[in-house]
Amino acid sequence: MADQKFVELLQTLLQPNTEHVKAATEQLNTQYYTDPAAVTALVQITMSNQAEDLRQLAAVEARKLVPNLWENLPDQQKTQIRQQLLQSTTEDEKPLSRHSKARVLAAMANQDLPVGKWTELPAILERAAVSSDVKHREVAVYIIYTLLEAMSPSNLGDPSRFLNIFVKTIQDQESPDVALNTMLALGELARTLEDEKHLKTFQTTIPHMARVLQRAIEDKDDVRATQACDTIDTLVELDSALLGPHLKDLMQFFIQVAVNTDLDNDIRTQAIGFLMSCVRFRRYKVQTFKLGEPMVKMCLQIALELPDDSEEEDDDDFLPGPAALALIDTMAESLPPSHVVVPLLKAAGPFVQNSDPRYRRAGISAVGMCVEGAPDFINTQLSEIMPLVLHLLADSSTLVRSATLDCLARLADDLAEDVGKEHAKLIPALIKNFDHAVQAAQSNSSDAMALRIIKASCIAIDALVDGFEPDVAALYVDQLTPRFETLFGHPDHRVQLAAISATGSLAAAAEDKFKPYFQKSVQSLGQFVTRKDSNDDLDLRAMSIDALGKIACAVGGEAFQPFVKPLMQSTAESLQLDHQRLKETAYIFWSAMARVYQEEFSPFLPGVVESLLACINQDETGEEIGVQSADLSGQQVTVGGKKFTLTQDNEDELVDADDALVKALLDAASADDWDDIGAVTGVAMEKEIAVEVLGDVLANTKNLFVPYFPKTVTAVMPMLEHSFEGIRKSAVGTLWRSYASVWGIAEGQGMQKWRPGLPLAVTPPEDLQKLGQRIMPLTLALWADEADRSTVTDINRNLSATLKLCGPAILSPTLTPGAATPLEQMCAILVKLLEKQHPCQIDEDVDDIEETSENSEYDWLTIDTTLDVVTALSTALGDQFGELWQIFEKPILRLASSQETSERCAAVGTIGECVEGMKAGCTPYTARMMKILLKRLSDEDAETKSNAAFSTGLLCLHSTNAKEVLGSYNEILSKLEPLLHKRQNPSEHEARGLDNAIGCISRMVKKSPQNIPLQEVLPRLIALLPLTEDYRENEPTFDMIVSLYQQQNPVIQGLAGQIKPVLEKVLQPPEGQLTGETREKVKELGRYLGG
Q1: Which key words are in the record (predicted)?
Q2: How far is the C-alpha of 816 from the C-alpha of 671, rounded, in Å?
Q3: Quick one: 768 and 734 in the same domain?
Q4: Which domain covers residue 884, as residue numbers?
């Protein structure tokens, strides 16, 4: 079949002519590639043709045809082809060609071995792998590697047969290729090893793998070093037993590699990547190894090599400096603050005081990278950090000021309200940086650093104003808005984007105070919303639409009305312009319009829903081009905006590749295929936003959305199983917002308010029941198995909110006989989470790891929201929750006795919330609850003491165990006494502690006034009113006062003069001081005292 015409068509595929390639491909597919003889012909060309590029292409084509055509060849012919190709591969002197043939052999074996053919191959390879002929060893080990890569190892028999060989070949001193290919093969085999004996054997190869990598580094063989790094990195994500006792040694080795400036940047960056994988996938072991501080110091040292950030370049992500900062970010997210943030702040001190600006930049950059992962801890350090930020904003070095602006933006992103308190100092400093940079850019338009500072100043202000109250933002509207508007026409579109975004955020913060600039801003931004001639135009269009949505929310629907229809038309057109960010901002703009206009959004609702559902239902597969990582060895490719370094067998040549790749490399027709790879991720991100926006639209349009609920729920439910966690989170949120919206509609149509307990006292309408029966089982299934912490946290939040809003309806028993009820499933999952045994909390086998009392903030957030679900259950079930408390008591009391402050504080508060929910149902547990609460009333942490006071009061009020409660009164009063003092400038927790102590005593008095020395207590209590922080405690406080007046208690009657001014104050703003019922009681008491 290898006639001249067939050969000519193959040669055409190698030509850089799009039309010729397409025609030849079509002819090959229709006239030749349906015939099994094509495999024979291609193998012959691979073995004998004189043209190397044609042999290479023939091997690629043969490998692709084998899965479909090989079985149709006669057995005798297949035997002949195997023997000839195996011999040709063994004799081939060129590694590239040899490896191409090996992959064809692997494809054949993948078809033969599972059906009991070519059974002699494994034994042949075993013998050759330990041959004295180095070439035989190289070929055999590489074929084994390609077999393991191409097929299930189970088809190759007992893993021991190859493991025992690899233990020897990984130590090959004669051939680096044998050792490296063994390492690659071990990486493939590792994916399927489960037997303890096999895992132990595998562990013995780890030190040799490290030596293979070390040898490649010493030989300055970057290609082999890259492959070795990739293999070891992959092992981190697999069974922890694979690395066994060697993980710490490996980490220390990679730390040394990362800091070695004599090595190639790519290897150093890969070493940092390995450490990042360890932190992400083995965070408990990393914590046990106490390597957080050494890695922090390593990252600071490497951060000295940050490139001059006059402008970001794509290549920067592959340099050690930026990679080190990314590692700090990952560590802050995955490890406790004491392992990362504490040593970093300590080590950064000398850096930011160093006379060398590179050190100051490295120090402040590292601080900024900690914020997202540990915002709560960073918040406790703001008193130290903010003066440093203000100082470095005035630094003499533009590099340092630029880095400080980035740090400030990160601080404001996560701590906007607290950082915003420094607005009077920060805004002038930011304006000064902005103005100086604008002047510098005007003097020298090519001053890239000036442009960088202009942009960074806008971004910092953008983040900062998010934390401003409208009256604070109003102070700066006149100063900032004109400055931003001057940049709308700037020649650098990145500066334009930053200024437009900052304008939108400033408007959102200032609300109606932005109205003086409303018309001009809309007109200025309006010029961008129809542009579509270039990617820069589309970027500007997207950012302008986003800003206009924020402006609409700021000024209100009436003022914005004239612009709604043209902008809705613009966003509809945006969906057809093939620009991901533009599509996303269109959806977000629709969300803003739904919030502003609510039921008046109805004219746009059909088109909006249709477009959002079309987005959710779109295919994500893209075009399959069959690129294999091994085919791009050693190459750097940019896919979807990210650069990837792949492995390579020969640094001067490419390994075999699929035809589409070959053509792409030869400037032929497949350039568009590369774009499709990135589109998969882009589509997923687009869907995430579309699902979330659907939730916004349905929540705001209420009754008008009713016709669309069935389609919406049907479209969103499959997203709970999507591979991208962002979509799963959005789907959970939108489905439960759907349920809450339908619930609200039912209540509006006359459904009674829910009442606690099961069976349901108030039965929801049938459509609501069916909706719950669809959503709840899928949510429970996802919740039970979800490995992503943030997704579990979101599920916790949604279930907690739903239980509080809609009561126990979602807990009603399942209709499936013998199956666990939703309540039983929930309790099982909650206990796992509280005991830190949920899949999202287990990264590895941790039997050999010492239990630690510390969590990262993300770990703690998962537990904290789990406690919220428990309290919501108590609210939904009422006194019935008393039966469930025995399930949760042990893990919650353990948390309440934890050495970690956050755990004690939250658990103590949870006890009180649950007592409030189950009321008298807490009685059987009174003694144990009282014991821990009394202990926590003397806690060293002010917030924990405050929560203990809150919970103690509720326990005293609701428990019917009079002996235990009343017997503890004196001790409670004694422990509360230190809290009953008004301080000059109390912290938030101190003020809350005072309020909660007053609330506690008020509940104790209400429960049993005869057991309280009222003559001593009441005057002091009244003197401390009104409450200033926790207005919730006004209810028990005034309830107690009113109750004593109703009883005509002489002590309270004698305090009328002190009580009157208190009543006047709490009836004044802020309105949130009193609930409606309590407000009426206070008014009535005021009238009584005034009469």
Answers
A1: Cytoplasm, Nucleus, Protein transport, Repeat, Transport
A2: 53
A3: no
A4: 758-842+854-896
